[in-house]
Design a protein that fits this description.
Growth Hormone, Chain: A, plasmid, transmembrane, 403 residues, MFS, 2 domains, globular, mainly alpha, MFS transporter, membrane
Length: 403
């Protein structure tokens, strides 16, 4: 084997190790979120935790998760990311053990620390993901892994592990992938590489803020996530108002379609233009809300929730792709999960303040406003980006002529 081939093989192995290690950080960070019903079941069935507020624990964990996701990309050090990830994985393991031993009054602190560590892990994954050659495809593969793992783990935990070890041990099993990620941590890169681009500096403002186009795309992400979470929270009450038993199957169909959506996005994200695909997906979501507002039967509702589940994970990779292309410095990609998580968590809370929880029509109307706003922000971003690119091109031509 020639020296060039040996170098190429060694480089390929490092890249595989890097992808696996970063993927494990991604799965470990999202694991609690993806199988939260199992976590809730453990609380409900553990006598020591009967009086614990599930809502307070969820708020503590996911609010910390969202805030850290939004801030970590800016404040995490560019070096010693491996050490930072290792500390967060150890916090996962310690907090999981603490959940089985600490008194109920301490559990909010446990979930707060757990959510903070999860946010840092996902942020580190996105920092490395943003530097990959095909970030859209990579995030699609990672998202598919989270979805498949979440579904399998949700089945295995209550049916296999709980009978053997008891409900309280679910907290430890939730950190299984944190333990595996710790083993493979040595393959994770230790520092981030901030991309430099003359075009990006010209398009972006001089005070190092994001250019307007990626900001508008993040607004589109926010409104889309707002829509997604509101519908997710209120889908079951909507289903109960539809005559017949067919609508009750919406969750199973939606989860299966989510897996297919994530998997197919990994196959097609680099083959399909991002803007047309996002536009089509967001417009279909608008039609979904309009159709349900107009009235659907059980089969129609299940069909729309399947489409909703499919698009919810299919479009993520396309958003990453377009953010990567409009912001060569890759800061927007790193901000993506924070914007997504915070706006998603705000949605149901805001809706509950504006309308009664039994006013399904009012909920859907607010959701319709959110999803209509999303493609408008996306299209405005493209107009702004084209104009900015045109200005950069004219500046380049003028510079060339001056020589």
């Amino acid at each position: 084997m020639s020296s060039d081939n040996r170098v190429s093989a060694s480089s390929s192995k490092r890249e595989i190790g890097r992808t696996l290690a970063v993927g494990l950080l991604f799965v470990a960070g999202y694991m609690s979120n993806s199988i939260y019903p199992s976590f809730v079941g453990a609380i409900a069935n553990t006598s020591r935790l009967h009086d614990v507020s599930i809502g307070d624990l969820a708020t503590a964990e996911f609010l910390a998760f969202g805030v850290v996701l939004l801030l970590a990309g800016r404040y995490l050090p560019q070096r010693k990311l491996r050490l930072t990830a290792g500390i967060c994985l150890v916090i996962h393991l310690l907090m999981a053990y603490a959940m089985t031993k600490f008194p109920p009054g301490m559990l909010i602190i446990c979930r707060l620390l757990y959510g903070t560590a999860s946010g840092v892990l996902v942020s580190i994954a996105y920092i490395h993901l943003a530097q990959s050659a095909l970030p859209g495809r990579t995030v699609a593969v990672y998202t598919t892994s989270v979805m498949v793992t979440g579904v399998v783990w949700s089945l295995v935990l209550p049916k296999v592990l709980v009978p053997l070890f008891g409900y309280s041990q679910i907290f430890l099993f939730l950190t299984f992938f944190s333990f595996v990620a710790l083993i493979f941590l040595k393959f994770c890169p230790d520092e981030s590489i901030v991309k430099e681009s003359t075009d990006a500096r010209l398009v972006a403002s001089e005070n190092n803020k994001l250019a307007l186009s990626p900001v508008l795309i993040l607004c589109s992400v926010g409104m889309w996530s707002f829509f997604m979470m509101i519908f997710w929270v209120y889908a079951d009450p909507i289903a109960k108002n539809i005559p017949g038993s067919v609508a009750k199957n919406w969750l199973t169909i939606s989860l299966v379609c989510q897996i297919f959506g994530a998997a197919l996005s990994a196959l097609f994200v680099e083959k399909i233009p991002a803007i047309p695909m996002l536009s089509i997906g967001l417009c279909i979501s608008i039609i979904q809300i309009v159709a349900i507002l107009a009235g659907v039967d059980g089969i129609g509702f299940v069909m729309w929730t399947g489409i909703y589940g499919f698009l919810g994970y299919f479009l993520v990779a396309f958003y990453i792709k377009v953010l990567n292309k409009t912001d060569p410095t890759n800061r927007a990609v790193i901000l993506f999960p924070g914007v997504q998580m915070l706006t998603a968590s705000i949605g149901p809370m805001l809706v509950s303040k504006l309308v009664s929880e039994t006013n399904i029509s009012g909920v859907l109307k607010i959701d319709l406003i959110a999803i209509v706003t999303s493609p408008i922000c996306l299209w405005l971003a493209m107009v702004v980006h084209k104009r900015a690119a045109g200005r950069v091109q004219r500046v380049g031509l003028a510079g060339g002529e001056s020589h």
